Amino acid sequence: MQILDGKTVAAAAKEQIKARTILHKNNIGITPHLAAILIGNNGASETYVASKIKNCEEVGFKSTLIRFELNVSESNLVEAIKKLNEDASVHGILVQLPLPKHIDEANIINCINPAKDVDGFHPISVGKLVQGLDTFVPATPLGVMMMLKYYNIETVGKNAVVIGRSNIVGRPMSILLSANTNPGNCTVTLCHSRTQNLEKICAEADIIVAALGIPNFLKVNMVKEGAVVIDVGITRVVDEKKKSGFAIKGDVDFENVAAKCSFITPVPGGVGLMTIAALLENTLKAAGAE
Asked: Are residues 43 and 104 in the same domain?
């Protein structure tokens, strides 16, 4: 069993991004600039956005954080996005999800200029992804693909199961794994809450991507010997033994599943770190760098 170490892969990716950023600045005179919009003070979102900003600094990007109160109106949020769309110095725009219930998430995503859609959520980005065209790929699935490539994990012809059908992870993940690329060329089964015989389907998979947000969902009986298991889940659960009062758990029962796997990602320290690296990659691309 080998751990797929997100820290190692992300560090390598960031070193490459930093070098390309320097080259881009020297040749074109452009510094990639990521603007993030954060609404309210959700603890997980605060941590995630702070990490994005810190990572931008580490690779030489500019970053801007725009904050709104939880009761911000949708019209004010749209206006802020329009200003960023029109600002030529801003190359990437992201709106930290989830949004308050009174705001239409789809409308907000649609307001972002597709050329600055570094989250890869805009319908134009999604449409291009489906057609196999060059586009911004959602950061978490892109991060998983970067990890598979780094570790030279064979995917061609493999039976892959993706658990979870969200537009952020599950659906794009299934598209990437089935694409005629390397990594890719898998035969993919996309599973969800209505899937029957899920245990049997997973137990026959060469590669499993768990992305449903239920701690310890994937049990040892659902994994065959030698499988590659990618855990996308990140959930805070109460843990009075921790100073913070909570622990971070993935969707995989790591303690019992790991021994059966050829490769497996830990939580934390796995896919989460790759998500940030992939976001940086998208931002550099939005700034016009090769």
From this structure: yes
| Overall pTM surpassing 0.90 (yes/no) | yes
Q: Could you say which DSSP state residue 180 is in?
A: S
Residues of the chain with pLDDT under 50: none
Same domain membership, residue 89 and residue 162: no
Backbone angles phi, psi at 275, to 5 degrees: -60, -45
Residue 179: give its domain's CATH number: 3.40.50.720
pLDDT in the model for residue 248: 84
Count of domains observed in the chain:
2
Catalytic residue among 14, 52, 158, 249: 52
> CA-CA distances (angstroms) from residue 153 to 9, 120, 156?
13, 25, 9
User: Do 103 and 193 share a structural domain?
Assistant: no
Q: Decide if 151 is inside a domain.
A: yes
The answer to whether the CB of 134 falls within 8 A of the CB of 163 is no
Q: Which helix (H) or strand (E) holds 7?
A: helix 6-28
CA distances from 82 to 111, 112, 191, 224 (A): 7, 7, 37, 49
Q: Indicate whether 264 and 143 sit together in one domain.
A: yes
154 inside domain: yes
**Catalytic one among 14, 96, 158, 253?**
96
| Active site annotation includes 2 | no
Task: Give the per-residue pLDDT at 108.
Answer: 97
Q: Residue 253: what pLDDT?
A: 96
16 is catalytic: no
What confidence score (pLDDT) does residue 166 get? Answer: 95
CA 13 – CA 231 distance, rounded (Å): 20
Please tell me which residue in 14, 116, 117, 119 is annotated as part of the active site: 119
Give the structural domain span for 51. Answer: 28-113
